[in-house]
Design brief:
Helix 4 crosses helix 5 and helix 6 packs across helix 8. By secondary structure, the protein is of the alpha+beta class. The chain is globular. It has two domains: 82 residues; 237 residues, no CATH class. Helices cover 35% and strands 18% of the residues. A hairpin with a 2-residue loop joins strand 8 and strand 9. The strands form three sheets. Strands 1, 2, 5, 11, 12 and 13 form a six-stranded mixed sheet that branches. The chain has a six-stranded mixed sheet with strand order 6-14-10-7-9-8.
């Protein structure tokens, strides 16, 4: 049923073999470079074709390749469904999600890499605009396709050590939300005395705003990409690198003005949970136990983590010794591959120096470490990125600009311990 797809794959693989033989006999450097460039392009096309065949076979096996009447779908319809057709212009409606069709994904790629505004792009994003009227690239925005967004979220969960541990919600901004509805409690009841509905005070509410996280990508990084699969992988990588850094910074030290309110800036953290350590204290086990560990409420200890710069952990915590100069008893090495950053049985998350300053370079009263349960922090966003084209007139360069609307706040500040430099 998929003979045309398979024949296309066979031809490209044969062409690849011919090019390899030609490269072995080639002696001219410029000709060899051209052959290698064509082989790289063929590799991308072969990989994409194999993916299309696998998806088509999966759809046929699950029954999706049949019409409503039960008769099989024709070969030309299957080829059109997966973006490889014989020139037919009619597009079948295959996806409930308009941002997940192959036409939209290809239109999005053309918009980002070449600035082309097509009907497939406008029909989903700005149906009021028409191609017969002049439409500049600055007039158009494009929502990132669902396939890229799903991959982006998965990568954020994998690489963002701070972001992947916080709670994520999608709540309307500008509305007071009782914290009890986001972080519920439970209590025992009897037949005679049912549980009363919790009385929510004004200080037990949280309100999320609409803050934009802007991520700029130079067009030159993407302009040379011709394969859809490679384009989606590359733009995901670029966005993840920028967003992970911005999200982690905001969760720890966001100002709350135009950005999420960071843990170390939140005024709801009790004064008794803000601890100051001298240079002598930060290197002593007994000082940490008396001044920090002893004050952590029991219900926050189980899943709490220390967050600090590598300089503080490596220079003071991991190198901590007893009165005789011997390392404090612990097992940090040999359990798994690499080092396990732990302190007093608690996980230690290392962050860059511009997020939390290391003790040696921190000023007096600067935060040098935080202990908290990151699931008590909430990022509120619909996780939908919109791309714009933006022109930097100072450098005469076109930049693709992605904007994510999000906000974040602590839901429970009682278990946060903030350690500062004396």
């Amino acid at each position: 049923m998929f003979e045309k797809l398979k024949k296309m794959l066979e031809k490209k693989e044969e062409r690849k073999k011919d090019l390899k033989k030609k490269a072995e006999a080639c002696e001219a450097i410029e000709e060899l470079r051209g052959i290698n460039s064509e082989v790289d392009k063929l590799n991308d096309e072969i990989e994409e074709l194999r993916g299309l065949i696998a998806e088509a076979e999966k759809a046929e096996g699950s029954g999706e390749g049949e019409t409503r009447s039960g008769s099989p779908v024709g070969e030309s319809q299957v080829l059109a469904t997966y973006g490889v057709g014989s020139g037919e212009s009619k597009k079948e409606e295959r996806e409930e999600d308009p941002y997940n069709t192959i036409e939209y994904r290809k239109a999005f790629m053309s918009y980002i890499t070449r600035g082309q505004v097509t009907e497939d792009l406008l029909g989903v994003n700005q149906p009021e605009l028409r191609l017969d009227a002049y439409t500049g690239t600055t007039d158009v925005s494009a929502v990132i396709p669902t396939t890229i967004m799903n991959e982006l979220i998965e990568k954020l969960e994998e690489y963002g050590e701070i972001f992947r541990r916080v709670r994520k919600t999608n709540i309307q901004g500008g509305v007071d939300v009782p914290i009890l509805s986001l972080k519920p409690t439970a209590e025992w009841i009897t037949e005679a005395a049912p549980s009363d509905r919790k009385k929510v005070q004004s200080n037990t509410k949280v309100q999320f705003s609409y803050y934009g996280l802007e991520c700029k990508v130079a067009m030159s990084l993407l302009a040379s990409i011709t394969s859809l699969n490679m384009f989606e992988r590359e733009i995901t990588r670029l966005l993840v690198e920028a967003m992970v850094e911005a999200m982690d910074k905001a969760i720890i030290a966001g100002s709350g003005d135009g950005a999420p309110l960071g843990i170390t800036v939140d005024e709801r953290v009790p004064n008794g949970n803000i601890i100051t350590l001298t240079a002598d204290d930060v290197a002593r086990w007994d000082s940490w136990k008396k001044k920090v560990f002893a004050k952590i409420p029991l219900k926050y200890r189980a899943r709490g983590s220390f967050i600090m710069a590598s300089g503080t952990f490596e220079g003071y915590i991991d190198g901590m010794v007893d009165a005789n100069g011997q390392p404090i008893g612990r097992t940090n090495y040999g359990i798994t591959n690499g080092t396990q950053e732990r302190f007093g049985g608690r996980e230690v998350l290392l962050v860059e120096d511009d997020v939390i300053a290391p003790y040696d370079s921190a000023n007096s009263d600067d935060v040098i470490a935080v202990f908290c349960k990151l699931s008590d922090y909430c990022i509120n966003s619909n996780m939908q990125l919109t791309m714009f084209k933006w022109t930097d007139h100072d450098t005469n360069q076109i930049v693709d600009k992605a904007i994510l609307v999000a906000d974040g706040k602590l839901l429970d500040a009682s278990g946060v311990m903030i350690i500062k430099k004396a």
